Amino acid sequence: MTRIDGSVLIAGIGYSEVARSTGRSEGSLAIEACRNAIEDSGLPRTAIDGIAVWPDRVSSVFEGPSITYMQRALGLSRPRYWQAFGTGPAQLASLVGAINAIAVGAADVVICYRAHLRQEQRFWAPGAGSGGTDNAPATAESAYRVPYGVPAGAPRFALWAARHAYEYGTTDEHRGALVLTCREHAQLNPRAVWYGHPLTMEDYLASDLIASPLRILDCDMPVDGAVAIILARSDRAPDLRSRPVAVQSVGHAGGATLDNELWPDMTVMAAKYAADEMWAGTSLRAADLDVAQVYDGFSSLAISWLEGLGIVGMGEAGPWLLEGHGRLGGRLPICTDGGQLGGGRLHGFGKVAESVRQLRGECGQRQVPNAQVAVSCAGGGPMATAMLLTAG
Amino acid sequence: MPRSTLASLSATQLVTPGTWTGPIPVPDIDGAPYWQGLREHRLLIQRCAECRYWIHTPLAACPRCLSFAVWPEPVSGRGVVYSFTVCNREFAPGLPPPYVAALVDLVEQPALRMVTMLVNCRIGEIRIGQPVRVVYYDVPSATLAFFEPDGSPSGDSQVPCGDIQVRR
Fold first, then answer.
1. How far is B111 from chain A (nearest CA, A)?
2. Which residues of B touch A135 (CB under 8 A)?
3. A174 chain-B contacts, CB cut-off 8 A
4. Which of A11, A320, B155, B161 could form a disulfide with A232 if both were Cys (CB 3.0 to 4.6 A apart)?
5. What is the average per-residue pLDDT within B59-83?
6. Do B116 and B50 belong to one domain?
7. Using one digit for the tens of pLDDT, what is the confidence trace for A297-321?
8. Is the dihedral of CA A264, A270, A272, A276 positive or negative?
9. Model-level pTM?
């Protein structure tokens, strides 16, 4: 495998406004995030010779401005590298593609973005406006699952969570401890959508069981928002405004199938295979981590990431969380920005941006003291990407 | 003792999807024999004539040996609940809650899995590992394969199942 070993840097990060409903277009949010990332990097716009995105507007149920729109909006003339990923293991596919492109010399500086609009969720839901009609046709692989009530989202991951609970005794309190950890950290992040709204275990347990064993509070909070990340070859370090963060290793692996429901052993997600790949590319180990931005699109996914990364053994994540080890001040703080459960669904890009801010020491009240090694993760089920970052 | 997830559901809550307004499967070429089988109330699963591997969902060739000699064969219709979720939201259009979505592994081969709904059962009594058997449910222009507890009285049934009309 090609080892990254710090040959690629995260040169800049940028957030847009993040809120439940902004009334803005996805393009507007994405441009704001990119503009902030460019300013954060200190690089001139003309230095950017690549752009990558997952997913492209035309090829996915997820939203976001197309690469065509963004290349024009950012005035990136003559990009050497551009790539929109239709699928690929999860939300960080664009970053993985950009890192590999830079590592082999196909580009020097690549901008990646992820924009999300809450009200444009295209999962089937009452009134969602995307096929929300009686007797809607279910084609191709959807024919085998959508008529049975498993289109995506909560029912899909509930099936994984139920099996994990069956085999390892994972309880509502275990998932609740993950949700509470995120919500507690969100109280230290003014950008977090749940900032100012603390949560108790009683509140969590009283929340609606929408797809057992998952409750509504096990699902991340949809928001309007965008994050942009600029990657650069390591020799650009002297040109950067902010302290660079080095990409040490990336894992971007699948498993026995890329299909959510046909995956044979649902207690082990692709998180483990991505993590194994990531650890194979570095001499660092799980014990070296100072902070872990595990993916929490659903609470159960974060549990699988903790186990897949080897931070805890199989079945041990729940008790570990209940004992408070993932809290700030605990053994290994997780989701320090509040995660997606507490902060809002920035769809993996928030995981990378928060690691960068922790490694730069920019996190104020929620700063992990002297954070040097961080992991950022995205994905659930058969989709997984893990990225190991160090302070430059 | 941690609270059981299912304890918070009423044990008497019944599976009542009602008259079918939910999504309708549209067969493609690979899946046509499977869906035609269901229309005839037969569970036909694709099988490799060369290496005898069972394949679901259907593919154009066998994933184990890449043979194109893959044909539908009848199976017993019996399986085991691998996982299930009680859904209390309308996650798919026209599919009012509550319903029980499940993964059933057919007995013919490990992890020979179908996505399905569990019917003719009380929600609080469903268990992972429970033996189940297929029941057919006709919807406009297609038939769905649901599963019910194996060993329970069949479709027409002492166990209430809401408005679902199941025939065996």
1. 6
2. 20-24, 94, 139-140
3. 2
4. A11
5. 98
6. no
7. 999 999 999 999 999 999 999 999 9
8. positive
9. 0.93
